[in-house]
Write a structure and sequence with these properties.
The chain is α/β, with parallel strands linked by helices. It has 3 helices and 12 strands. The chain has a single domain, classed as Aromatic compound dioxygenase (Protocatechuate 3,4-Dioxygenase, subunit A, Sandwich). The radius of gyration is 21 Å and the shape is globular.
Length: 208
């Protein structure tokens, strides 16, 4: 059957409008994020609110990172949020074993994943990273986050208040994505502990 004149343009318009609406509902938040795909490299592991990173037992100072992830209102705990962190070893190197694939080739194997429960709480057991060998960067721990219904995006790195490289100039450049990433190490039960709560969407570009 031959399509009536004028029907084809109308049909194409409907399809284009539909595709445009679908595209808008999937708008990417957070801006460019090189390496954020590494968040999905946990394989077949069943993620829990607590993870222990490789080399925790072998390194000092040992470090516990914990906090609560909140919804954008800043008070309601956020469930089923995946957090991915990675950092250098005690020599300031993103250490690899030699058999890495994917982003582990760059991030190294000292990395971990946690997924929040109904209370929004997460914890990582690791050790404090070192400055880069050339002293060009503060001690830091990278973090990427994935919440339900949004693409993955990065937050401000964990930085240590007592780090001499954390100068006023560095502080002024921070974006406070998800809230401040500056943490205050405290000794608790023989373990250095830092706490950081995260607010989803805070200072994240294009977040709705």
């Amino acid at each position: 059957m031959r399509m009536k004149r004028g029907l084809l343009p109308l049909l194409l318009t409907i399809i284009w409008t539909s595709l445009s609406c679908t595209s808008n509902t999937r708008k990417k938040v957070g801006g460019p994020c090189e390496g954020c795909e590494a968040l999905y490299e946990y394989g077949e592991r069943e993620l829990t609110p607590v993870d222990t990173l490789p080399q925790f037992d072998a390194n000092e100072p040992k470090l516990k990172i914990s906090g609560t992830v909140y919804k954008p209102d800043g008070t309601s705990p956020a469930e089923n949020v995946i957090l991915y962190i990675y950092h250098t070893n005690r020599q300031g190197i993103y250490e690899t074993r030699g058999d890495e694939s994917g982003w582990a080739k760059r991030h190294g194997y000292i990395r971990g994943w946690a997924k929040t429960g109904k209370d929004g709480v997460y914890s990582f057991y690791t050790f404090r990273p070192a400055h880069y060998p050339d002293g060009s960067e503060c001690e830091h721990i990278h973090i990427t986050i994935k919440e339900p219904g949004k693409n993955e995006y990065y937050l401000d790195e964990y930085l240590f208040e007592d780090d001499p490289l954390l100068t006023d100039k560095v502080r002024q450049r921070l974006e406070d994505r998800g809230g401040s990433g500056i943490v205050h190490p405290q000794m608790e039960d023989g373990l250095w502990t830092v706490k950081r709560d995260i607010v989803l969407g805070m200072h994240i570009p294009d977040y709705e």
